[in-house]
Sequence to fold (237 residues):
Amino acid sequence: MTGDPWRTRVVIVDDDALVRAGLRMILGGAPDLDVVAEAGDGIAGERVVDEHRPDVVLMDIRMPRRDGLETTRALLSEGARAVRGARGDDLKVIVLTTFDADDMVVQALRAGAHGFLLKDTEPRRLVEAVRLVATGEPILSPSVTATLMAHVATGGGAVADAGDRRRADAEARLATLTDREREVALAIGRGLSNADISRELYLSVPTVKAHVSRVLDKLGADNRVQIAIVVHDAALP
Fold:
């Protein structure tokens, strides 16, 4: 299916009908966003994504039949992207969480999710986040970043299994960066946007974007969230 190229097409996947209705109401009020479909579990979610070809998926983690983690992996796999074609290759997934599933959030980000939001995120910020992700700038809110950093620092869940080896690998990858690229990577790890980094480091936004591209390439990361995870794995501030 195709639609207005100037409008962002959104699919909502959540097993709570009230949450879906609330998200639809919030996003539907934005003139540039279209909620084209919704689903109550991961299996149905994958089906409606294939049918409607959205730009952004808001994905709950805890759902029946298939959870958001498995569905995110399936949607963002190379095979799935190839099947969906050129438009589907640009699919972005935002994970929805209530902070009670830190392990799964970390795994979802490693699976390629482009950020995550609290379900009680302020409506204005929710709309802004969807817009940013649609333009290719994954979101990592400062409050969620703090929780993720604490999770890594305490060695919880899936992160603990990798232990020192993951930290050593992250440190080695960061060592390939120049001093300026490292500053940009650390800023991304704190959840800053390109505009925020521009102001903090006194750089133009195009220069920041150029640095981000080089950091992505050197770290072998697919998106900014994965840069943040490398920073957190290295236990850097």
Q: What stands out?
A: The longest helix spans residues 157-174. The chain has two domains: 8-136, 157-233. DSSP finds twelve helices and six strands in the chain.
